[in-house]
Amino acid sequence: MKILLAVDGSPYAQHAAEHTADLCRRLREDSEVLALHVKDAGGIFGAVPIEPGAEAFVDVEQIREGLEQTATIALDAARRVLEGSCAVRTLTVWGRPVDVICGVAESEAIDLIVIGSRGMGRIAGLLMGSVSDQIVHRATRPVLVIRGAAEDAPGRHSEA
Question: How far is 42 from 136, CA to CA, in rounded Å?
Answer without folding.
Answer: 21
